[in-house]
Amino acid sequence: MREITHHGVRKFFSFSRIEKPVNTNGLILHYYAMRKKYILFLVLICTICKQKMFSQKIYNTWFFGYHSGLDFNTAPPTFLTNPLIEADEPPYYTSSICDSSGNLLFFTDGIKVWNTSRVEMPKPPGRWPWGIDDQVLPLICPYPENDSLYYLFTVGGGGGLNTGKFLFTTINMAANGKAGEIVYPPSPGSANYFTVLADNASFMLAGTAHCNQRDTWIVTITNGALNSFLVSPGGTNTTPVTTLLPVPQSTLSEGYSNIKFSPNGEKLVIPIVSKNEILVYGFNNQTGIFSDPLLLHLPSKELLEDVEISPAGSKLYYASYEYEMDGNDQTGVEFHNIFQLNLESGSAADIEKSRYKVNPFPNRAGCPGPCLIIMRTLQLGPDGKIYVSLRKDKDNGINLIEFPERDREYASYPGNYLRYGKVYKFINVNYIRSASFSPKENGIQVKKKTCLGLPTEFSLLYTKIDSVKWDFGDPTSGASNYSIEITPTHNYKAVNQYTIKAIMYKACHTDTAITQVSIDPDPIVRIPAYIKDTIVCIGNKLMID
Question: How far apart are CA 186 and CA 169, in angstroms?
Answer without folding.
Answer: 11
